[in-house]
Design goal:
There is one protein chain. The chain has 237 residues and is α+β, with helices and mostly antiparallel strands. It is built from 6 helices and 12 strands. Helix content is 24%, strand content 32%. The strands form 2 sheets. Strands 3-4-2-1-12-11 form a 6-stranded mixed beta sheet. It has a 6-stranded mixed beta sheet with strand order 5-6-7-8-10-9. Helix 3 links the parallel strand 7 and strand 8. Helix 1 crosses helix 6 and helix 3 packs parallel to helix 4. It is globular and about 45 Å long. The two termini are 13 Å apart. Pfam families: Exo_endo_phos. InterPro entries: Endo/exonu/phosph_ase_sf (IPR036691), Endo/exonuclease/phosphatase (IPR005135), TDP2-like (IPR051547).
Length: 237
């Protein structure tokens, strides 16, 4: 905790591609980032999905907070600093011909700081994606907390209208305090920023970006995205 009773929280957002790659390398990347919260996209959704997600969490010295198949892919992991108040997995309306999407959400405390958390993976289809951004903002507003974060795979660059909609209502953490790399996709030739962490206005963003100095071999083996890490100062209630 900081002297003013606020909490310093490290938040990682990471698309893990259903753990189809090197899970040991993925766990090493996550551990090297030392996160308090991990906002996962493309968590396993099918056969023995809970066991697979639990193995990743255990290997990264974390626990499952919520999500996975019950949120159509997004999940949240956390360390033991987090005190969990409640969780809710939300399935979004299904557009025919598109993948089911959802949000993994939770309210947690770090000391006296109370924080709403949402992990998302928005649609590949632009109109559906824009509508989902509105649902995300509504969900954060309805969580009954003063401070909240959302992170995930936006499937759009910052210039797109969905990304702009989120950044106009929340802080785009990388834009506020860039630290480390910008581009998150692909892992081998990063040239696009389509993964992001957003925070409500009262949260102080100390730094955000793709962490430098992570082992290149692990990043390439873990998944096809790069992780985004934000260090945040969350005021006490």
């Amino acid at each position: 905790m900081a002297p003013d009773d606020s909490a310093l929280v490290r938040v990682l957002s990471y698309n893990v591609r259903s753990l189809r790659d090197d899970t040991a390398a993925l766990a090493r990347v996550i551990k090297a980032c030392a996160p308090d919260l991990v906002l996962v996209q493309e968590a396993p959704r099918f056969f023995r999905w809970r066991k697979k997600l639990a193995r990743l969490a255990r290997a990264a010295d974390l626990v499952i907070l919520t999500g996975g198949a019950t949120a159509a892919g997004p999940a949240i992991l956390c360390d033991l600093r987090a005190t969990v108040e409640r969780t809710e997995d939300v399935l979004l309306p299904l557009t025919p011909g598109q993948h089911r999407r959802g949000f993994a959400t939770a309210v947690v405390r770090f000391g006296n700081a109370r924080l709403g958390v949402l992990s998302c993976h928005l649609s590949l289809q632009k109109d559906e994606r824009y509508e989902q951004a509105g649902m995300l903002l509504d969900r954060l507003a309805g969580m009954g907390v003063e401070h909240a974060i959302a992170g995930g795979d936006v499937n759009e660059r910052p210039g797109g209208r969905t990304f702009r909609r989120l950044a106009e209502n929340l802080q785009d953490c990388w834009a506020v305090a860039p630290e480390g790399g910008e581009h998150t996709w692909t892992h081998s030739e990063p040239h696009q920023r389509i993964d992001a962490i957003f925070a409500t206005k009262g949260i102080e963003v100390l730094g955000c970006g793709v962490p430098p100095h992570l082992p290149e071999t692990d990043l390439r083996a873990a998944t096809d995205h790069l992780p985004v890490l934000a260090t945040l100062k969350v005021p006490a209630d």
